[in-house]
Amino acid sequence: MSPVSRTAPEPTSAIAQEVARLAATPEVRNALEWFRDQETEFARWQLELARIPAPPFGEAARSDWLAERFRALGLLKVHKDAVGNVCGSNPGVSQGIISISAHLDTVFPANTPLNIRQQGRKLYGPSISDNASGVTALLAIAAAFANFNLPHAASLLFIGNVGEEGEGDLRGMRRIFSDPQWKDSIQASVVLDGAGTDTIVAEALGSRRFEVTVRGPGGHSWSDFGAPNPIVVLGRAIHVFSQTRVSSSPKTTFNVGVIRGGTSVNSIPESASMRVDLRSSSASEIERLEFELRRALEQGMLEEEVRTASSRNSHRRPELSSEMVVIGDRPGGELDPGARILQIARAVDAHLGNDAHIQRASTDANIPISLGREAIAIGSGGSGGGAHTLQEWFDTSGRELALERILLIMMCLAGATK
User: Fold this and answer.
1) Residue 377: φ, ψ to 5°
2) pTM value?
3) Angstrom distance (rounded) from CA 368 to CA 6
4) What is the average pLDDT value for the chain, to the nearest integer?
5) What is d(CA 114, CA 137) in angstroms, rounded to the nearest whole number?
6) What angle do helix axes 60-72 and 39-50 make, rounded to 10 degrees?
7) Which of 29, 38, 148, 279 has its CA 20 to 30 A from that of 299?
8) Which pLDDT value is given to residue 115?
9) Residue 128: how many CB atoms within 10 A of its CB?
């Protein structure tokens, strides 16, 4: 994440007064006390979920686990949709829906050793923070509404969605906002992602990802020396592309994150590929980087063809080909500074004395924000580190602050009036 330069306006006095009124009601005070008393159960949920593998496109077991929890908490119409999202409803008395979601998937491949464990207030293991903590907060909020009969005029839609990480390309949230059942009725969306209480993601960071593949005739490293080498082509392309100018404002980045190819040290590979990530808050900057990547690939191909044509030992035509396939395209966008959801979040933070900064990031909120809908992404409390590594951790200390924050935001959005 990177901080944005603008500052949102202060919340209106009416919203601030509503936050204070809600926080003082007996139902909310009882729910907040319950949050503090239930930490052992929350940690158990979090550890149990993190022990269930959820590699990219392999979230089914976690979806089933969450569906069982949703039913146990009394949510209605619990179901899995065509891509594996788990949805459950808490009906309101007026039209309109407020959604709250947390992604189920992880970045870790199948068969990754998980080693999920607890030491005191710290939980350890892959995905324990991103995003087992978010799913735990989702369940805690669902339980609070059910256990304490918290008022809400709009219906509440609880979602455990798939496909947030990497190649998932936000497919779970794309499905929600293309489903006629939800796309026109969801008025605002709260996304729970990772630890902490110090951010409000109100701007969606756009990204585009490519798999670049180069193919050649291959051969033996001795007898076919001089044949074009796809790995060398990629190496040349990476060298050229790495010198591309990037903008600092708007911030723009690129990364070559994966490279593959070859079968043995004494074989000229028949193919090689790399995966490239381009990010910016500016769509035009992403387009420019894509152009530079394509240009670098063309230059790498040309240089390798020239080398092989001039090689004394070359007795083959170059026979090189390449392709760039889009494997991810996340839309960007910005929440209006005066959006009601942002005013509510800032009013809740002011009431709680919580210092939170507006940030730009790539989250499930990209989809509704890019469609002009009101949405934010916030943390699920505590603190965490080592995200996307085997050393990931989450400290449960202070989780109750985040749960109070999320609860008050949801109640304000849903029109919690008696």
Assistant:
1) -120, 130
2) 0.88
3) 21
4) 94
5) 21
6) 150
7) 279
8) 95
9) 29
Q: Are 401 and 197 in contact (CB under 8 A)?
A: yes
The strand ranges marked E within 162-218 are 186-192, 199-204, 206-215
At CB < 8 A and 24+ separation, what contacts does 62-71 make? Answer: 62/104, 62/105, 62/160, 63/104, 63/160, 63/162, 66/104, 66/135, 66/139, 66/160, 69/45, 69/139, 70/142, 70/158, 70/160
**Residue 123 main-chain phi, psi, to 5 deg:** -110, 140
Residues 6+ apart with CB under 8 A from 298: none
Under 8 Å CB-to-CB from 111, ≥6 apart: which residues?
53
H/E segment holding residue 102: strand 97-103
Secondary structure of residue 217 in the 3-state scheme: coil
| DSSP output for 5-38 | S--PPPPPHHHHHHHHHHHHSHHHHHHHHHHHHT
State the sign of the Cα–Cα–Cα–Cα dihedral 7, 10, 15, 16. Answer: positive
The residues near 271 (Cβ < 8 Å, ≥ 6 apart) are 213, 214, 215, 216, 230, 261
Query: How far apart (Å, rounded) are the C-alpha atoms in residues 292 and 241?
Result: 7
List Cα–Cα distances, 41 to 58, 139, 145, 416, in angstroms.
Answer: 26, 11, 17, 27
Question: How many helices (H) and strands (E) would you count in the chain?
Answer: 11, 20
Read off the pLDDT band of 3 (50, 70, 90): very low
- What is the pLDDT confidence band of residue 308, given thresholds at 50, 70 and 90? confident
User: Under 8 Å CB-to-CB from 84, ≥6 apart: which residues?
Assistant: 59, 60, 63, 104, 162, 163, 172
Query: What whole-number distance in Å separates Cα of residue 149 and Cα of residue 129?
Result: 29
**4 has a pLDDT exceeding 50:** no
**Under a CB-based contact definition with an 8 Å cutoff, are residues 316 and 220 in contact?**
no
